From TrEMBL:
Catalyzes the reversible oxidation of 3-phospho-D-glycerate to 3-phosphonooxypyruvate, the first step of the phosphorylated L-serine biosynthesis pathway. Also catalyzes the reversible oxidation of 2-hydroxyglutarate to 2-oxoglutarate. One of its GO terms (molecular function) is NAD binding. Keywords: NAD, Oxidoreductase. Pfam families: 2-Hacid_dh, 2-Hacid_dh_C, ACT_AHAS_ss. This is D-3-phosphoglycerate dehydrogenase. It is an enzyme of class 1 (oxidoreductase).
Length: 410
C-alpha cells in the first residue's frame, strides 16, 4: 500500500494541463495519486484561476501562464511541474515568495530539438519549404539555384547550453563549421569555436540558430538591426522562444529576399490548443518553414518528461525532497519510517532556525533528524519528530514570523 501522508492521497488534487503525456498520469497513479484532472489545452486566466484555487499540484507545458495574479489565488498549491524545459511561463519570483516549489525536465527533449534543427538546416539550405509550397499549388520549381549542401557551411549557434552544444556535435558530423555565441565562456565541443559577440556570429554564419532561454536580456535579441547584419542569403532558425525574434522584421527580410529562408517553431503569441487559429505575419511566406512549437514534441521526449516531472512532484509530496527544483533550495531526503516529518518553508532572514529550535526546546520535543538548506530567497527546514508531537510542533512553527508554508508528512 502507498505510504500515507498527512493529507490522504485521494484528497491531493492534481491539475494537469496542455495534454502532458499519459506517462505522468501513470506515474502519479502508481504512487497513489489518483485525484487528477486532465485537460488537453491551456486555460485562459479566469478559468485557470477558478481551477487552480483548490489544486495542490499543477502540471503545465510552455503555454500556461502562471502569473503572480494566478499564483496568489492558489492558496493550496504546493508545487508546479513544468513538463518541458522552459520555465519563463511561470513567475518564478512570485512562486518563490509564496513558497511554491517549481520543477521541470531540463534535458528530456534536448535531443528532439537538436534533431529538428539539423533537419531544418538541410531543408532550408535546399529551399525545400518554398519548393514544397509551389508543388502543392501545382507548380514545378526544379532548379539548383539557391540550393546548397550543408557541408562546409557555417552554423552559428546562439546559446551553447544543453541543446546548442548537442547540436554543435551533430552539425560537425554533417561537415559544417560551427561557431557559437554565449554570455558564458563555454568549453567548445569538437572543433566548434566561441565568438565574442552576437554581431561577429551574425556576420559569419550561413545559418543562425537560437537556443537561449526567454529572459529580459534575450527579448527581441534578433530585431531589424540584427537581421540586416546577417549575410545576404543566410537562414534564421528559431526553436527557443517567440519573444527572442522581432517577427514583423523577420517577415520583411524574408519578403525582401535579404534572408533566403527561416524555420520558426515558436511565436510571440501561440494558440492555446489545436482548435484555435494560428495567426502570424509569417503565414503565406513560402520560404518560411513554420512548425507549431513541436521542437520537443516527440513520443520519446514526451514520455520521458511525463515520467521525470511526475516523479519529482510525487517525491516532493511524499517526502519533501526538492532535488533539481528550479527555485527551491535542494534537499535530498532519506525516508522517514516511524516518524512524522515537518516541512517548513520560510523567507531567508536571520533567526528563523533559532526560532524553530526554540519551539522544540520549549516544548521538550525530541528531534530525530533535521535538514536545512537555503538559497538567496528561501530557507527550507525539514524536521523529523515522534508522531505524537507533530501536531503541536506544526501549530507552533507555523506562527514563526517569516514562515511561508508549513506541512507535515506521516
Ligand atoms: N521549441 C521547443 O519545443 C523547445 C524550446 N526550448 C527552448 O530552448 C531554450 C534553450 O534550452 P537549453 O539549451 O536546454 O537551455 P540551457 O539553459 O541549457 O542553455 C541556454 C544557453 O543560453 C545561454 N544564454 C543565456 N542568455 C544568453 C544571451 N543573452 N546570449 C547568448 N547566450 C545566452 C546560457 O548561458 C546557456 O548556455 C529553453 O530555455 C527553451 O526556451 C527547449 C526545449 C524545447
Ligand atoms: O521544453 C520547452 O521549453 C518547450 O518549449 C517545449 O514546450 P511544450 O512542452 O512543447 O509546450
Amino acid at each position: 500500500m502507498a505510504p500515507q501522508t498527512s493529507l490522504q492521497k485521494d484528497k491531493i488534487r492534481i491539475l494537469l494541463l496542455e495534454g502532458v503525456h499519459q506517462s505522468a498520469v501513470d506515474v502519479l497513479a502508481s504512487r497513489g495519486y489518483t485525484n487528477v484532472e486532465y485537460l488537453k489545452t491551456s486555460l485562459p486566466e479566469d478559468e485557470l484561476i477558478e481551477k487552480i484555487a483548490d489544486a495542490h499540484f499543477i502540471g503545465i507545458r510552455s503555454r500556461t501562464q502562471l502569473t503572480r495574479k494566478v499564483l496568489e489565488q492558489a492558496p493550496k498549491l504546493i508545487a508546479i511541474g513544468c513538463f518541458c524545459i522552459g520555465t519563463n511561463q511561470v513567475d518564478l519570483q512570485a512562486a518563490t515568495e509564496l513558497g511554491i516549489a517549481v520543477f521541470n525536465a531540463p534535458y528530456s527533449n534536448t535531443r528532439s530539438v537538436a534533431e529538428l534543427i539539423i533537419a531544418e538546416t538541410i531543408l532550408t539550405l535546399r529551399g525545400i519549404p518554398e519548393k514544397n509550397a509551389v508543388c502543392h499549388r501545382g507548380g514545378w520549381l526544379k532548379s539548383a539555384k539557391g540550393s546548397f549542401e550543408a557541408r562546409g557551411k557555417t552554423l552559428g549557434i546562439v546559446g551553447y547550453g544543453a541543446i546548442g552544444s548537442q547540436l554543435s556535435v551533430m552539425a560537425e558530423a554533417l561537415g559544417m563549421r560551427v561557431i557559437f555565441f554565449d554570455v558564458i565562456t563555454k568549453l567548445p565541443l569538437g572543433n566548434a569555436m566561441q565568438v565574442n559577440s552576437l554581431d561577429e556570429l551574425l556576420a559569419q554564419a550561413d545559418v543562425v540558430t537560437l537556443h537561449v532561454p526567454e529572459l529580459p536580456s534575450t527579448r527581441m535579441m534578433i530585431g531589424a538591426e540584427q537581421l540586416e547584419r546577417m549575410k545576404p542569403g543566410a537562414i534564421l532558425l528559431n526553436a527557443s522562444r517567440g519573444t527572442v525574434v522581432d517577427i514583423d522584421a523577420l517577415a520583411e527580410v524574408l519578403k525582401s529576399g535579404h534572408l533566403a529562408g527561416a524555420a520558426i517553431d515558436v511565436f510571440p503569441v501561440e494558440p492555446r490548443g489545436n482548435e484555435d487559429e494560428f495567426q502570424s505575419p509569417l503565414r503565406g511566406i513560402d520560404n518560411a518553414l513554420l512548425t507549431p512549437h513541436i521542437g520537443g514534441s516527440t513520443m520519446e521526449a514526451q514520455e520521458n518528461i511525463g515520467i521525470e516531472v511526475a516523479e519529482k512532484l510525487a517525491i516532493y509530496s511524499d517526502n519533501g525532497t526538492t532535488t533539481s527544483s528550479v527555485n527551491f533550495p535542494e534537499v535530498a531526503l532519506p525516508g522517514h519510517p516511524g516518524v512524522h516529518r515537518l516541512l517548513h518553508i520560510h523567507k531567508n532572514v536571520p533567526g528563523v532556525l533559532g526560532a524553530i529550535n526554540q519551539v522544540f526546546s520549549d516544548n521538550a520535543i525530541n528531534i530525530s533528524a533535521q535538514f536545512l538548506q537555503t538559497n538567496e530567497t528561501l530557507g527550507y527546514v525539514v524536521i523529523d519528530v515522534d508522531a505524537e508531537y507533530s501536531d503541536l510542533a506544526l501549530e507552533k512553527i507555523k506562527d514563526i514570523p517569516a514562515t511561508l508554508r508549513c506541512r507535515v508528512l506521516f
